Amino acid sequence: MQLKAMELQGYRNYDSVKLTTEGGVNIFIGPNAQGKTNLLEAIHVLSLTKSHRTSKDKELISWNSSSAVIRAQMSRRVGDVSLELQLSAQGKKAKVNGLEQRKLSTFVGTLNVVLFAPEDLDIVKGAPGVRRRFMDMEIGQVHPGYLYDMQQYQKILQQRNNYLKSTDIRRASPELLEVWNEQLALTGVKMMQKRKNFILQLQKWAEKIHAGITGGTEHLTVDYKPSFGTADSLDSQDQSSLFGQFMIKLTQSKEQEFRRGTTLTGPHRDDLTFAINGKDVQSFGSQGQQRTAALSLKLAELELMHEEIGEYPLLLLDDVLSELDQTRQTQLIETFQSRVQTFITTTGLESVNMSRLKDASIFHVKDGQLLR
What we know:
alpha/beta, 6-stranded antiparallel beta sheet, 6-stranded mixed beta sheet, 15 strands
């Protein structure tokens, strides 16, 4: 998979800019706040129709424009593909090869990316929400239907939470609550099973990659922790059994949910745990071990996507090389070198091990302008 060209109009600080790549490694260099990350974000938005930095699409549109447009030409195993995504106050319009897509879920997955930014080092040691977002974004690219389930789940969850906040348990309608419970459980079970399968696949690659980085001295395990039951129970039960278990948990926590005004069971409460040689990395791992685990996860994503779709995604490295020591940076570069088209942002080449990079294309970014 390769991005051959991209054009932005009215996007962030870019009134109009065109990028033509030659494949391989592409480095965007320049001071902070010039627009380097905006370029990587645009590629990410073209992949998933949403930003990794904000949930508000209006922030992606430049202040003097009513809409933003991202266009790209890319090549895949099946041939060349053109993509277009328009963002405006009226919503999003997406086109593949000039044909408008009725659902965004049919657009997602055409361009696949793996993003690695400094905040991704918090996947291991950060809050559970960081890990849930990690799962959602990556599963959604390989299985676009998952994004639909996730969006439906969020809508139901918000409605249910609003009801819990605004209604006293003594005046609550059992019939209405039962409808929301059923809807929440139906979509939630689908998400849980897909998360479990994804983590199983990811674990296989992450374990192998982590052993390579550490010279075989450390064994990394990644476990999915659903909000109720265990990950193993997802294998041993069918959807109807899990649905029943979900409904029971919602009933059991009813009084507590009304007191707190929020839903306490479901995928929005899931988490991941990491262990090295059997010890919890989040609680007992060194910073170096936590970073190596995060790096292993990101490199595992590349391999998992290659396994699923038959080609490597694009790799987006947003100012992350300066955060890695020489050993981890070398491991990262050797992984993508000559295999994965990569886009890197950096404030200076002194933070990049250029001796490991071959034939990198360098672009200078200044005030929303792109120069070779």
